[in-house]
Amino acid sequence: NAQNLRHELLPAGTDCFRVYDRNLSGYPVSVDIYGLYAKVTDYGEEPLSDEDKAVCLDICSRMLYLEKENVIYAYRAKRAVHEQHEKTDEEAVTTTVHENGLSFFVDLTTYVDTGLFLDHMVTRSLIRERSANADVLNLFSYTGSFSVYAAAGLANSVTSVDMSATYTRWAEKNL
Predict the structure, then answer these.
(1) For a Cys-Cys bond, which of 25, 112, 114, 155 suits 131, CB 3.0-4.6 Å?
(2) How far apart are CA 143 and CA 113, in angstroms?
(3) pTM above 0.70?
(4) Rounded Cα gap, residues 28 and 42, in angstroms
(5) Number of C-alpha atoms within 13 angstroms, CB side, residue 15?
(6) Tens digit of pLDDT for each residue in 34-72?
(7) Is residue 143 within 8 Å of 171, Cβ to Cβ?
């Protein structure tokens, strides 16, 4: 999957995409490419055993042609109702990735989410196509990826609103 997607997407200015999404019951993980990095997110009831985790990370490194230190593992525990994901204690691993010729800042380790939901690429592209001469309001804007697409689509104006000062600064950086 990764090789086919790279050949399809790199000429279009995209170096971030999902290559695996929980297809095998024994490996309830997703694998996403973010430029020179891969992020393996474990959605299991319990984290993978150390042995299974090592095998998974090794396979990702070899099959995706990435340095071992550029394959990042994160366990995403199920949350209780109204529980928020906590910031991790890990050192931030950040990079800039490209999607359809647009640039986005992502953080692969500080939070459970990276700042760019890769499965929304088609929807973001639709926003770009329909934004010309429009005034766009992006509520719950998170890191502003939809706002970036609206601006790239030549919207007259783009207003991004989020309650989080952290994500508002992040959106500004993306814009």
Answers:
(1) 155
(2) 11
(3) yes
(4) 6
(5) 15
(6) 999 999 999 988 898 999 999 999 999 998 899 999 999
(7) yes
Contact of 34 with 103, CB cutoff 8 Å = no
The number of CA neighbours under 13 Å toward the Cβ of 19 is 25
CA 111 – CA 167 distance, rounded (Å)? 12
Tell me the pairing of strands 94-99 and 102-107. antiparallel
Question: What phi, psi does 13 have (nearest 5°)?
Answer: 80, 35
Structure tokens at 23: 């297809």
Among all chains, which residue has been given the structure tokens 């592209």? Answer: 125
Question: Length of the chain in residues, anyone?
Answer: 175
The residue with tokens 């991004």 is 160
Rounded distance, CA 48 to CA 138, Å?
37
